[in-house]
Write a structure and sequence with these properties.
By secondary structure, the protein is mainly alpha-helical. It is built from six helices and two strands, in the order αααββααα.
């Protein structure tokens, strides 16, 4: 098995992205129950499905799980920009065929990312673009 490069970005499903988004908003770890309460309306699934999904995300390296007095608390293991970069790169390059600076400037006008997160996102998108050009040579 080959080691992942630092610039490799995760492929995230819609549900994984939703779970990460909940955890990114939390300053502390959350239990499966706390996450489930926030997404149960969106996905209309059982608690056990949320738990299974989050445990798989731990195995994929997307989440970290720690025992806190008998309750597992989960935290995101990837940054918000890293989580969004692959999705945005696909959307920007493959669907819209637009320059990344235009997309990054949209985030600059929103409150979705901090200045540091925007810088990280821009760097990740630049790396993705460079990697893609190298593969196509």
């Amino acid at each position: 098995m080959s080691a992942k490069k630092k610039t490799d970005l995760p492929d995230l499903s819609r549900t994984e992205l939703q779970i990460l988004n909940i955890l990114w908003k939390s300053k502390e770890g959350l239990s499966v129950r706390e996450v489930h309460e926030q997404i149960k309306e969106t996905f209309n699934w059982a608690y056990s499905t949320t738990k299974t999904t989050m445990d798989r995300m731990v195995k994929k390296g997307l989440l970290k799980r720690e025992d806190f007095h008998g309750v597992f608390l989960y935290q995101a293991q990837i940054s918000k920009p890293a989580g969004l970069a692959r999705l945005l790169s696909f959307f920007m390059n493959d669907l819209l065929e637009m320059d990344q600076s235009a997309l990054v400037s949209l985030f600059g006008r929103s409150k979705a990312l901090s200045d540091e997160e925007i810088d990280e996102l821009e760097s990740l998108l630049e790396q993705q673009s460079a990697d893609k050009k190298n593969v196509n040579k």
